[in-house]
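note to self: dont lose this again. the chain is below, predicted strucutre after it. 186 aa total, dont forget to put it in the shared folder this time
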Amino acid sequence: MTANLQARTGAGTDAPATPVFAEPIRHPSAWTVADFRSPADYSVDLDAAQLRDIAAVMRRIKAAGIGLDGLQREHFEVPSLHPVIEEIRVQVENGRGFVLLRGLPVEDYSKDELGMIFWGIGTHLGRGLSQSVMGDRLGHVKDFSREDPGRAPTATSRNCRRTRIRATWSGSCACATRRQAAAYRG
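---
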């Protein structure tokens, strides 16, 4: 452990690898659970017109035979989503650092189609890149705590690391069970 710490801090310095702040960080991204009264405080809800437009663009993408690897911004042009995309951008870049997108009828789409929808939205937020040495562009995380309530939170964490889901346009996706999040926040 000491050797690892020395390697991270650098030779001949006592400075920690991660800066230690003397004062609390005052920024919307330095939030706690108490900052949110309800999920509405961090959610963006899709309306009926946006859902119809997403379904239409997905039909066009499917008819064109475009897969995730070929999906570009111009393929996922949904003008009614522009306000949603802008809200995501504002919150990720300068706000709380995340947005919960609600209202997409996941039962109407396959897992691959859902991935394409989120990738398509992401094409309007930045450039998607592979997040693994295997070239994976999108992975899926599943919370196993409902299936096995006795499963240790660390097992779920390992699962998250193993299955990796990353929103490439925003950096990464933190993965924790409610129990882990509560323990972390105190």
